[in-house]
């Protein structure tokens, strides 16, 4: 049986202690803001014809003028959010979420019928 000598055990203990002290002394990173919440562009889903094998980018921020797909608006209006990219396996007609709060993105799961969406303001698109 291989046993550590007292000197080796002391060295390991001091090394680990120094690593812990260094880690605790490191500056902490504080985010000044959390990623933005998506806005609600529609309280109904979008019926979309998808082509199998084609890559789509579903808007997650709600600012796109090409709903339900991304037009890059998140880069200026919702930094911290990015589109959900997906590739359907086959051609299909689907309902893509319009409220942006689905639990099954990018597909509608009926979340838009819940009170927090029904009572929320609808986002109005602007030219800016």
Automatic annotation (TrEMBL):
Lineage top rank: taxon: Eukaryota
Transcription listed as a keyword: no
A molecular-function term among this protein's GO annotations: metal ion binding
Keywords assigned: 2Fe-2S, Iron, Iron-sulfur, Metal-binding
Matches recorded under Pfam families: zf-CDGSH (PF09360)
The Iron-binding zinc finger CDGSH type domain, residue ranges: 43-80, 81-118
Cofactor(s) it depends on: [2Fe-2S] cluster
GO cellular component terms given for this protein: mitochondrion
Signal peptide boundaries: none
Gene3D superfamilies referenced in this protein's UniProt entry, alphabetically: CDGSH iron-sulfur domain, mitoNEET-type (3.40.5.90)
Presence of keyword Iron-sulfur: yes
Record-given protein name: CDGSH iron-sulfur domain-containing protein 3, mitochondrial-like
Originating gene: LOC116039702
